[in-house]
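quick one if you have a minute, typing this from the bus. below you get a single protein, a line of residues and a line of whole numbers that encode the local backbone shape. could you go over both lines and see whether the tokens make sense for that sequence. anything you notice is useful, everything is just below.
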Amino acid sequence: MDNKKIKVDVANKEGQLGFVFTRGGLREGAGRKGIGVTKKVSLTLTEELWNNLEKQCADDEVSRSELIRKMIEAYYSN
């Protein structure tokens, strides 16, 4: 394994941090592309529904956000 030093640097977009090696730097447009607009929401569910949601996430090996996004997309595609 190569022991390159890693540092945290600030990207051009405000609030985004990135890891860079000693050579090169952050590149505009590099990395995973976004799929839409991110908005924070608060969701109140019963303990049973949260447990069901968490189990489904584990079974499907997806994040909570991805599972909820798929549910919303399925609802609006009908």
Summary: The longest helix spans residues 47-60. The CA atoms of residues 9 and 25 lie 8 Å apart.
